[in-house]
Design a protein that fits this description.
The protein is α+β, with helices and mostly antiparallel strands. It is built from 16 helices and 17 strands. The longest helix is centred in the middle third of the chain and has 22 residues, at 182-203.
Length: 476
């Protein structure tokens, strides 16, 4: 069973966390954590990087927004400050009891049933039909700290005061793209990818990497560039009993000159991964759950080689119009891209929790700002041309790989190998209906019950899924 990594900062003691965490008292606050890398030398003032769950001594420079850096939490004498990234990949949740002045910031939504009672708040899950709106969560009284925000709670002579500053949304700058040459735009994006991947390696010079490789251009470009930079990289292609993309992955791995692992997971392996995926996402939107299923399944089933960081191609579809809908004008396609990026601020589909729980750093190079910026500056006519998506990337990548590789038909990560259709059929067979959201909602409810009893990690996926499927069937 994976071991979750999390941090809670509160201005009151939380008895329910005492038996499952390490507690550090820092003047006005109490810090509870599990798995946080916290050198003793950083006390009493330090910053926690929420993506990596590592603490470092505070540099005392003021936080400001907008931020392209990771979300972080600063603890310093009588102030706690949360500075979220522009895209809120790794959320920080907050709850407060208005009548008693108690509050908490925490990085794992499933800690809520342990925290809320100490704040004088009830634990109430939203109804399956009541989809959360933006920074709302599936648990009432718990919200995310908004994206691109600095939120500071300080002890004053008048009590605890919270001040929130929202930065300008960087997405508002990209309604007028400036890149109109497909080859140049594609090359610039590949160069930005190359630089980002190189930066990963430079920051961790002894780290080896694994890529999740399908037959497509996104994971293919990441794998190809990592190999081109001379990094120690192994590719892994994941299939299922519903199908696979092994042939395309073999071709790409051969061109990149890297070893390819082919892992075919059973239908049951993906079903077992559903509760884990809901747990790490903290959400139940079917499309988001199913996009994340493959990564969750390979983590929980030990498919990937140990002691290697993971590189993915996730995010490219969103910034490069990989899954566009029919449109009548360039402005409509720009709106589709910007809206797709904006939605990720609330879905948490790019968070690091699952990988961290399995002791593995994860990197999404397409979701680093230098790469995103080039993509957002690229005109619709470069991204979609002659009915083909990612036209600019394909045009540039074609200089390094054969035509049939660069221009291979696009398959979304959750469609590749028939995964989404296969999961839908299995859930329909187990419940008698096609409302997948209802199954995921019951998974969430059961996991919340376990968490309320102090069992964040020690539960059986098969049991949770079977009970959720039964409940979903019974509530029709």
């Amino acid at each position: 069973m994976a071991a979750s990594t999390w941090v809670v900062v509160a201005n009151c003691k939380i008895p329910e966390l005492e038996g499952i965490s390490t507690r550090i008292d820092a003047d006005r606050f109490h810090l509870y954590h599990q798995g946080l890398e916290l050198p003793t030398s950083v006390l009493p003032s330090f910053d926690v990087d929420v993506r990596t769950m590592r603490a470092a001594a505070s540099d005392h420079l003021p936080y400001s927004a907008p931020r392209m850096a990771h979300t972080s939490i600063r603890l310093d004498e009588d102030v706690v400050a949360v500075a979220t990234s522009a895209f809120n990949e790794d959320p920080v949740y907050t709850a407060s009891g208005r009548l008693n002045g108690r509050f908490a910031y925490f990085t794992d939504l499933f800690l809520a049933p342990l925290i809320l009672p100490s704040l004088g708040l009830p634990v109430v899950q939203r109804h399956v039909a009541a989809a959360p709106v933006e920074d709302e969560t599936l648990i009432e009284h718990v919200r995310r700290v908004s994206y691109n925000t600095v939120q500071e709670t300080r002890r004053t002579s008048r009590g605890w005061v919270t001040r929130t500053v929202h930065g300008d949304d960087p997405l508002n700058r990209y309604w007028r793209p400036t890149r109109h040459n497909p080859m140049r735009a594609g090359n610039d994006q590949l160069q930005a990818l190359r630089q980002v991947i190189g930066d990963y390696a430079a920051a961790s010079p002894h780290t080896a990497f694994t890529t999740l490789l399908s037959g497509g251009i996104d994971s293919g470009a990441v794998t190809f560039l990592a190999a081109e930079l001379g990094l120690p990289v192994v590719a892994c292609s994941v299939g299922s009993t519903w199908g696979n993309e092994f042939e395309g992955a073999r071709q790409l791995a051969g061109l990149a000159g890297v070893e390819l692992m082919e892992a075919e997971l059973s239908e049951d392996a993906f079903v077992r991964a559903i509760p884990d995926t809901v747990r790490w996402l903290g959400g139940i939107a079917p499309e988001v759950v199913e996009v994340a299923l493959t990564a969750t399944a390979v983590h929980r089933d030990g498919v990937l080689p140990p002691d290697r960081a993971l590189l993915t191609g996730y995010g490219s579809d969103l910034i490069n119009a990989g899954l566009y809908s029919p449109y009548d004008s360039d402005k409509e396609l720009i709106a589709q891209v910007l809206e797709a990026v904006h939605r990720t601020r609330f879905t948490e589909e790019l968070n690091s929790r699952s990988a961290l729980a399995h002791g593995r750093p994860v990197f999404h190079p397409f979701w680093e700002w230098p790469v995103m910026k080039v993509a957002l500056e690229t005109a619709p006519g470069c991204k979609v041309r002659e009915g083909r998506e990612k036209f600019h990337l394909r045009t540039a990548f074609n200089a390094s790989v054969p035509y049939e590789v660069a221009w291979r038909q696009k398959i979304a990560v959750h469609h590749g190998g028939g995964l989404q259709a296969g999961v839908a059929r299995r859930l329909a067979a187990d419940t008698g209906h096609d409302d997948r959201r209802r199954v995921y909602h019951h998974c969430f409810a059961l996991l919340l019950e376990r968490a309320a009893d102090g069992h964040l990690d020690d539960w059986e996926s098969e049991d949770i899924y079977e009970r959720a499927a039964h409940a979903a069937k019974a509530t029709l």
